[in-house]
């Protein structure tokens, strides 16, 4: 079995990244995490990646200012250098241009903290509570040029309970995220044939 080479893009603590690294330890897991890229210097997940012997790179977004494609070309250079097959966005808090998305069609996936198509964008937990919904959760989906709109791969559901705050709900959803992201990557890495 040739394992797919995966890059994880992060902006923060990287707990989903850590869940992917952990899952990929299994001998039968069809992917290996070989590269972590952060757009934010000092993001917590970088240290976790390094502690696991994974190449951890910062592509600081600041010097690129508003030139989003120039930033993405710098990211893409690392992805190419590391011969990446699949890109996982895990708390990567940037909207991507159609150019980068186009480089990774069907090979870039994202985890989003809601049951898409509900609650695209930010502050998903607070919005779910404000609306009084009883079910919330997380979605792994393919990335397309439209924000949080690509085909769904897997979803995980949690109940919203009386007294929930955005923080308590986020913590419950995060547990589900850590289960479904490794499962979704397993599915994609198994199905996806190198072309
Ligand atoms: C996760 O809850 C993820 O779903 C969310 O950011 C958090 C990152 O946590 N992503 C988004 O909101 C993307 N729009 P992590 O760094 O611990 O994985």
Structure notes:
Catalyzes the transfer of a formyl group from 10-formyltetrahydrofolate to 5-phospho-ribosyl-glycinamide (GAR), producing 5-phospho-ribosyl-N-formylglycinamide (FGAR) and tetrahydrofolate. It catalyses: N(1)-(5-phospho-beta-D-ribosyl)glycinamide + (6R)-10-formyltetrahydrofolate = N(2)-formyl-N(1)-(5-phospho-beta-D-ribosyl)glycinamide + (6S)-5,6,7,8-tetrahydrofolate + H(+). The protein has six helices and seven strands. The chain is of the alpha/beta class. The chain has a single domain, classed as Formyl transferase, N-terminal domain (Rossmann fold, 3-Layer(aba) Sandwich), CATH 3.40.50. Strands 3-2-1-4-5-6-7 form a seven-stranded mixed sheet, sandwiched between helices. The longest helix has 26 residues. The site of glycinamide ribonucleotide (GAR) has 13 residues, from helix 1, strand 5 and helix 6.
What's the quick description here?
It is built from six helices and seven strands; from the N terminus they run βαβαβαβαβαββα.
Low-confidence stretches: none
Please give the number of β-strands: 7
Per CATH, the superfamily is Formyl transferase, N-terminal domain
Give the CA-based shape.
globular
Number of helices: 6
The hetero compounds bound to this protein are: glycinamide ribonucleotide
Mean pLDDT: 96
Sheet with the most strands: spatial strand order: 3-2-1-4-5-6-7
- The CATH level-2 architecture is identified as 3-Layer(aba) Sandwich
Distance between the termini: 16 Å
Q: SSE string, helix = H, strand = E? A: EHEHEHEHEHEEH
- Structural class of the secondary structure composition? alpha/beta
CATH fold topology: Rossmann fold
Q: What is the alpha-carbon Rg in Å?
A: 16 Å
- What fraction of the residues are assigned to beta strands by DSSP? 15-25%
Q: How helix-rich are the residues, as a percent range? A: 25-40%
Reading off the top of the CATH hierarchy, the class is best stated as Alpha Beta
Number of domains: 1
Task: Describe the largest sheet.
Answer: 7 strands, mixed
């Amino acid at each position: 079995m040739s394992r797919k080479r995966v890059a994880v893009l992060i902006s923060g603590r990287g707990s989903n990244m850590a869940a992917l690294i952990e899952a990929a330890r299994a001998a039968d897991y069809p992917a290996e995490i070989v590269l972590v890229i952060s757009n934010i210097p000092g993001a917590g997940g970088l240290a976790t990646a390094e502690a696991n012997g994974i190449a951890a790179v910062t592509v600081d977004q600041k010097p690129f200012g508003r030139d989003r494609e120039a930033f993405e070309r710098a990211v893409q250079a690392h992805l190419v250098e590391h011969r990446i097959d699949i890109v996982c966005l895990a708390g990567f808090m940037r909207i991507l241009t159609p150019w980068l998305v186009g480089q990774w069609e069907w090979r870039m996936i994202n985890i989003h903290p809601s049951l898409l198509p509900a609650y695209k964008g930010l502050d998903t937990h607070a919005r779910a509570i404000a609306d009084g919904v009883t079910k919330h959760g997380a979605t792994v989906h393919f990335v397309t040029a439209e924000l949080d709109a690509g085909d769904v791969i897997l979803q995980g559901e949690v109940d919203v309970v009386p007294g929930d705050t955005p923080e308590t709900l986020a913590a419950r959803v995060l547990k589900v995220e850590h289960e479904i992201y490794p499962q979704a990557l397993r599915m994609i890495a198994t199905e996806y044939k190198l072309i």
